[in-house]
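User: Could you check the structure of this?
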Amino acid sequence: MRFGLQDIRKHVQRRGGELFVSLHFLRAGESRTEISRLIAYYEQWLGQPQRRFSMDDARACVGEYRLANCLMATLSAWYAWRSPDWNAALPQPARDALEQASITSPVQLRLALFDFVNAHYGGFLETARREDALARFAGNYGLRVAELEYLLMLDSDDEAVLVRNGDKSVQPPTPGEVAALYNQWVFEAALFNASEVFFGIDCGAFGLGSGERAGAITTGVGAVIKRLCYLARKLGIYYDLAYEPGTSHLRLTLYGPQDMTGAPQQYGARLARLCRLLLGYDRITVDGRMAGGRRAGGDRPHPYISTAAVVEARATVHFLQRAYQFAIDAKLLALLPVQDAEGVEGVAGAEDAMNRIPTKVGGKIEVGNHEQGNEVYDSSIEQAFAEAFTSLAGSYAADGWQLEREPEPLLLPSRGAASQAIFIPDFALTRDGHRVYLEILGFWTPSYRERKLQKLQQLRGRRDILLAFPVEARGVFASLAPDFPLV
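Assistant: Sure, the predicted structure tokens are below.
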């Protein structure tokens, strides 16, 4: 159970005409006594029904209302309310009698009582006759009235029992673990409401590309580009990449749910997950244990981007119909839990799936041929095209052309800009020394189309780019017709 941006303590400032928001993170040692009291309160009520659990008493353990609600939501990673077991709540004779009547849940028991009242009381039960009716119905199954009333409400929220997630060997969380997960969820609450997240990445922090000449896109930078593209594509996040000539810095912009769909629940969760990978943190706690009791892996080096490579980061966050700048600095990143390679769900082995390592040759980043792994596509249209082409090639109908998924990035003319944009075509077609790039233009949002048009306009004059687009988007991309072959 996550909390939203509106639930978090925050501070707003205006600087140079822009609004900046800072969120309340728990610093080292902050509120640990209060969190300890809250954990102890939860432990006190393990196995007890929710009707006996006092939310006000739990909040009093922390004192500050908003922080208390957020910490209680954070504890849902370790504690949950679960309905009591039906069979465990029944004496054996009653269980046998109910099973013979095909009653195995509170829902079926309520339905049987409803039918009983309809059959014997004309569908209406007066208050004066209620006790007698319940006693008659309960007697049919060897139950007392009090037992019957409990079973009728067994699946209600009031009767749900507090349990600790995981098996019996799982220990309660430490205050440090709870604070770390709280900080992660505060950070991701901002991402759920972001229109874009910007990262300045120093590829030199990866120890790649040393000895390359200044101003060239080195092997290390190219490898990082492919890494970022793979992760973004894997999680379905739209992004832009730019390169600062003369440096090893990349400018990565991830577009958030406010920009792409307006619905943060699904897209925002994917964006937050990608940032977890880029920043090298996850739900790993201070002693290596994951929230909910899972144990992290060994001490293998993290295969993705780490905080050491992030030289600048910020997000544009939307709240109450206003936009705010949210600075992501080193102090904030230090509060996020550290991620181990084993904590990356669904993306483990990404390095093996990156089948080509780029290097710069003549204004573009060439890619060496390696065995291809499982491909990840931005859209079903791209996947259908690739599968159709593969089918043609399998029947010797591709006329010698070879298809390559997401080939080397192309550098766009800088025109005096501080950074040089990067364009990564969807496919490359190669035959007999000829190489043609194919870009399938989506029809997503107006801002997406505008950015795509701007990049393509910078590639005017090239004779090796072919554009394909949906028929209904003909008018949107008509301005490209004089410069590119369109399909």
